[in-house]
Write a structure and sequence with these properties.
Layout: H1 5-15, E1 20-24, H2 30-39, E2 45-49, H3 52-59, E3 66-70, H4 71-78, H5 84-89, H6 95-102, E4 108-110, E5 113-115, H7 117-132, H8 152-174, H9 184-192, E6 202-205, H10 213-220, E7 225-230, E8 252-256, E9 258-259, H11 264-276, E10 284-285, E11 291-292, E12 300-303, H12 306-318, E13 323-325, H13 330-343, H14 359-368, H15 376-385, H16 387-395, E14 405-409, H17 410-413, E15 418-423, H18 443-453, E16 456-461, H19 468-476, E17 483-484, E18 487-488, H20 494-497, H21 504-512, H22 516-527, H23 544-558, H24 565-574, H25 586-608, H26 615-634, H27 652-657, H28 661-682, E19 689-691, E20 708-710, E21 713-718, H29 728-740, E22 750-755, E23 760-765, H30 766-772, H31 779-795
Parallel strand pairs: 1-7, 1-8, 2-3, 2-6, 6-7, 9-10, 11-16, 12-14, 12-15, 13-14, 15-16, 21-22
Antiparallel strand pairs: 4-5, 17-18, 19-20, 20-21, 22-23
């Protein structure tokens, strides 16, 4: 086939030696495009495939200058071969022997449940396995998988208890003479931690929208020309820690939009779901004729989950139609067998059900405990069909090559295609909220449906997703009256407005500063090479939000600034200065108000005399302060706030004593990183250090207060452990602060982000910042335009 214009453009960018992100829609010929690139040069290339079968197929299609490998094969060649004997010898090690090697000798009692040594060993090895999927440099408590049947406090205790064993396990795994089970992901992690160079002039990364974080780190660190290809709209494995390398990749972005898999009719359906998946791509169908409508005998039925798939399987079996289930029936069989054991009053070894002593306990936990929501699908499957019927159905399944129809979940259908497809059960329309307002369709759900509908080549039956018509009609009117849940959009804060494309601020950004991707790309390029973020090691569920507030406050205090008006505002609300939803009893409210006042007084005393508080006490005050600010932001004491447990006898000392130790350690480490970047700021005159600035334009919306302005630098602190996930919203937040300073009160001439977990300072000249965003006017007239725009929005 002659290359399309899009493929030619991709080849030309590649031939120029520039990095490239190639967004390739379903069936648009991404592999042939990559082969075209490889043939356009004599340089040595490396094509990194998703799995071995893809790599083997590609090896016969690429030229001799391009090596085709999987990431695991690359890792094995350098590191894994040293562990070859361990891979073979440790393939089958009983859990009891694993526990003995780890030194786990006693069952562990938590919440009246006993966790046997064998299950402890399984959880420990699971922690190591999850660690191997991350870019972290050591095993942490949060790498433990959730354990059904234990409350959050129990999970924390269990994770802390098992963490030393996980460290011991990793030490064993790192040794060629170790005795624990050794897996392929182990040498992959060991290889990545050596910061490997791949020895190629260019690297082609396939399926880049679902990349293992370990491989992502290696790919981004290469000095070679980097090309990633995939479809961010098909990113459906985020729940499995897969990462989308493409979005925000600091490189030129091109698209392949001509699909040769299907014709215009199916392309039209795909485009509808691409819109809901927040993708700007639109496909054109260039395949053989396609039809959308009822399909009486489809070759594949694609469902949302296993329960829905089993329902379809049973329906076909009742009709006597040979049916296959993608992936086979081993998973539902194990679930059914576990249910039979529990119904008989016996324990089961099933990894999700091992703590329960009866099926009734499983049902109760899934129904009543928020932590048990993931079990609902299992309970529904067993209770709907019964374990015996599930096992019988599995026994009657046909292999795919002999079946008339294949039933699959959408996840397992990815990468496959059939002549005719029916969209089956389980894809539910979004619900309405407590106010009766239609909730928006989750983009991740839309991506899954996009994957499902693009598996069809000729015929597509959309039976399971016909609700989209009514949903789109409802949403078409949402926000048109300028309100959200009865509240005018103009009254939302800066960050609140940026969450809605139809808000006055978002509309201004879209028209006046349309090229946020330029800044995002520049930001991502500039954070490459920063060290790994520091983070709590020995805690299962760190309170990331509260930690973010705490480091912001602590940095403000180091600059001689106060905590900010929102903390005092929260204390005032407790004092009856405004409405408080679901306010606590009068005695509790009075106690918290007194504690809040004492906290503000202690901070004022520290600012007057820094020797009045030691570092430990100061960090605890900062952590508690965040929960008072939350009252001001939300108008209530939220369920998971540390203030929600207060009594009439609660004091500030009680609150600070309840601050977890990991908080003190974490903030201390972040402050250590800030010593360098913030030294110059602390040396500025007091008048040049402004903390929590509120702008002239803040009153034109529902509020906007930045973190710091130091020597003309508007700086926003981000305590994220994943700085690559910052993007358009954060860039627009900086722009909003800059423009809301209508009268140049603060003399801002630079803007920037401070990454507190890496000690990274990223700054831009204000004029260059606006130019990169596509501003059509200089700063002063642009501020005037925003003021007029907001005043006009307020009048309507």
């Amino acid at each position: 086939m002659e290359p399309t214009k899009e493929q030619q453009a991709a080849r030309e960018v590649f031939a120029s030696g520039r990095d490239l992100a190639l967004v390739a829609g379903a069936g648009t010929g991404k592999t042939s495009t990559l082969i075209l690139m490889g043939a356009a040069t004599r340089r040595r290339g490396l094509y990194v495939a998703f799995n071995r079968s893809i790599a083997d197929d590609a090896r016969g299609r690429f030229g001799p200058n391009v090596e085709c490998r999987t990431a695991h094969s690359l890792a094995f060649r350098v590191v894994g071969h040293h562990y070859r004997e361990r891979l073979d010898a440790s393939a089958r090690i009983p859990a009891k022997h694993t526990a003995r090697l780890l030194g786990i000798t006693h069952d562990l009692d938590i919440n009246s449940r006993s966790i046997k040594v064998t299950h402890q060993a399984r959880l420990v090895m699971g922690m190591v396995r999850k660690f191997c999927y991350t870019t972290d440099r050591q095993v942490m408590a949060r790498h433990m998988e959730p354990v059904n049947g234990i409350d959050p406090q129990g999970q924390e205790y269990l994770a802390r208890t098992l963490l030393p064993y996980a460290h011991r396990a990793w030490e064993d795994i790192c040794s060629p003479e170790g005795r624990l089970r050794f897996e392929h992901d182990h040498y992959m992690k060991l290889w990545a931690m050596t910061s490997p160079r791949l020895g190629a002039d260019f690297v082609l990364l396939d399926e880049a929208q679902d990349t293992n974080p370990v491989l992502e780190e290696v790919f981004l660190a290469q000095d070679a020309q980097r090309v990633c290809v995939g479809d961010p709209a098909q990113q459906i494995y985020g729940w499995r820690n897969a990462r989308d390398v493409m979005t925000g990749f600091p490189a030129e972005q091109l698209r392949l939009t001509q699909s040769f898999r299907f014709g215009p009719a199916i392309a039209e359906v795909a485009n509808r779901w691409l819109g809901h998946a927040e993708s700007e791509m639109q496909l054109t169908g260039h395949g053989p004729g396609s039809r959308v409508g009822e399909v009486v005998q489809p070759e594949a039925v694609l469902c949302r989950g296993n329960v829905d798939a089993m329902s379809e399987v049973l329906s076909y079996l009742e009709l006597g139609i040979p049916v296959a289930l993608t992936g086979g029936g081993s998973a539902p069989r194990r679930i059914a067998q576990a249910a039979l054991e529990l119904k008989a009053g016996r324990h089961t070894s099933h990894p999700e059900l091992f703590l329960f002593s009866s099926w009734g306990e499983v049902q109760e936990y899934a129904e009543q405990d928020k932590a048990g929501q993931d079990l609902k699908a299992i309970v529904q499957l067993v209770d709907t069909y019964g374990p015996d019927q599930i096992i019988a159905a599995v026994d009657r399944l046909s292999p795919e090559e002999k079946a008339q129809v294949t039933v699959s979940t959408a996840h397992k259908a990815k990468g496959r295609e059939w002549p005719s497809v029916r969209i089956g059960k389980g894809f539910m329309a979004p619900s309405v909220d407590d106010l009766g307002l239609q909730r928006p369709l989750n983009a991740s759900e839309a991506r899954l449906i996009y994957v499902a509908v693009t598996r069809a080549r000729h015929q597509l039956d959309t039976e399971g997703i016909t609700w989209i018509d009514a949903y789109e009609k409802t949403m078409a009117g949402a926000g048109r009256d300028g309100t959200v849940a009865g509240r005018r959009m103009i009254e939302l804060s800066l960050t609140g407005q940026l969450k809605y494309d139809s808000s006055p601020l978002s509309q201004f950004m879209a028209t006046q500063l349309p090229y946020s991707h330029n800044l995002v790309r520049d930001y991502l390029a500039r954070i490459e090479g920063l060290p790994h973020p520091i983070q709590p090691i020995d805690v299962r569920y760190p309170n990331w939000s509260a930690l973010g507030h705490a480091i912001d406050y602590r940095l403000r205090l180091s600059l001689g600034g106060r905590l900010g008006p929102a903390v005092a505002g929260g204390v005032m609300l407790l004092d009856g200065a405004g409405p408080l939803r679901e306010a606590p009893a009068r005695g509790v409210r009075k106690a918290l108000q007194a504690a809040g006042r004492k906290l503000l007084a202690a901070v004022d005393a520290y600012l007057a005399d820094p020797g009045s508080q030691d570092e430990n006490a100061l960090v605890r005050l900062c952590f508690v302060a965040g929960f008072f600010e939350d009252i001001a932001r939300t108008g209530e004491i939220r369920r998971f706030s540390m203030l929600a447990q207060a009594t009439p006898a609660t004091t500030l000392d009680d609150l600070t004593a309840a601050v977890p130790e990991y908080v003190v350690t974490d903030i201390d480490q972040q402050m250590g990183l800030a010593d360098g970047p913030f030294a110059a700021f602390r040396a500025l005159p007091r008048s040049a250090r402004v903390c929590g600035p509120v702008f002239t334009g803040s009153g034109d919306i529902g509020g906007a207060d930045a973190d710091y302005i130091v020597g003309g630098l508007l700086l926003d602190c981000k305590a994220t452990k994943d700085p690559r996930r910052l993007g358009r919203e954060e860039i627009h937040q900086l722009a909003g602060y800059l423009l809301l300073d209508y009268d140049h009160q603060f003399g801002i001439d630079r803007v920037g982000l401070y990454l507190s977990r890496q000690g990274g300072l990223i700054t831009w000249d204000a004029a260059d910042f606006l130019r990169r965003l596509g501003a059509g006017a200089p700063l002063t007239p642009l501020r005037a335009q925003l003021r007029r725009h907001l005043h006009e929005a307020a009048r309507h």
